[in-house]
Amino acid sequence: MPSNDARTLLHTAVPTAAVGAVATVVSGVVAGGKGAIGAVVGTLVVVLFMGIGLVVLQRTAKKLPQLFQAMGLMLYVAQLLLLFTFLALLKDTELFDFKAFAFTLLATTVVWVAAQARAYMKAKIMYVEPEKSGSKS
């Protein structure tokens, strides 16, 4: 993974994990052990879904740059639909507290998207490929 991609992943995953840790503590205090488990599961789901999406988006940008924007929009819609489906499937679960899971899912998703936008704004990514030295026109 190129350094820009790794840096972007790091700058998005760390704040998301931090919010997930805070949500786990708060959920553990408010809803007990099941609340903490729900918050951990919610954080892991967001980090996995969004992390995989970021890797797919970066690979698309490298191979098919003309599809980057369309792929990004389609990917975000697909991720949100997948998260919604995940919520719908687990709404009656007894394994963990669903409210803690849902609120953590929402909070970590918002933090991931905001951190990713900030990482892209701060990144110094060239949008024009410089010519290699010694190449002729």
Explain what this protein looks like in three dimensions:
The structure is a single chain. The protein has 137 residues and is an all-alpha fold. It has 4 helices and no strands. The protein has helices at 3-31, 33-63, 68-90, 98-122. It starts with a helix and ends in a 15-residue tail after the last helix.
What can be said about this structure in brief?
The chain has four helices and no strands. By secondary structure, the protein is mostly helical. The radius of gyration is 18 Å and the shape is elongated.
Biggest β-sheet strands, sense, barrel: none
Q: Helix/strand/pairing class, anyone?
A: mainly alpha
What is the average per-residue confidence, as pLDDT, rounded to a whole number? 85
Beta content: under 5%
Q: How do the helices and strands follow one another from N- to C-terminus?
A: HHHH
Poorly predicted runs:
none
Basic shape: elongated
N→C terminal distance: 31 Å
Radius of gyration: 18 Å
Total DSSP E strands: 0
How many DSSP H or I helices? Answer: 4
Estimated helix fraction: over 70%
What labels describe this entry?
4 helices; mainly alpha; 137 residues; elongated
Question: What's the arrangement of secondary structure elements?
Answer:
Blueprint: H1 3-31, H2 33-63, H3 68-90, H4 98-122
